[in-house]
Design a protein that fits this description.
CATH architecture: Orthogonal Bundle
Number of domains: 1
Shape: elongated
CATH class: Mainly Alpha
CATH topology: 434 Repressor (Amino-terminal Domain)
Largest sheet: none
Strand content: under 5%
Number of strands: 0
Distance between the termini: 54 Å
Structural class: mainly alpha
Number of helices: 5
CATH superfamily: lambda repressor-like DNA-binding domains
Helix content: 55-70%
Radius of gyration: 18 Å
């Protein structure tokens, strides 16, 4: 099951909106939105809370969160110059 499905399932089981679900799992609503949009990683604590709300294994929820999240690339990646990367005494 994908993370967004887990979040939707938890909200349905509790019959609450995603913002209320965010409060239940110890997050702010905008933070949960960022998790859904893959801009932020789900915390371990929130994964445990989601697992309890959905009846899923906490490890399954955590692994789904890890698969779902992707690291954002730095928009200004440049190699360091060889002279500038050494420390002077």
């Amino acid at each position: 099951m994908e993370l967004n499905e887990i979040i939707t399932t938890a909200a349905r089981r509790l019959n609450v909106s995603q913002s209320k679900l965010a409060q239940r799992i110890g997050m702010h609503a905008p933070s949960l939105t960022h998790v859904i949009k893959k801009r932020r990683q789900l915390t371990a604590e929130a994964a445990i809370e989601l697992s309890e709300l959905t009846g899923m294994n906490a490890k399954q929820v955590w692994l789904a969160a890890q698969r779902y999240w992707r690291a954002r690339d730095d928009s200004n990646v440049r190699p360091l110059p060889s002279e500038g990367s050494t420390l002077s005494s």
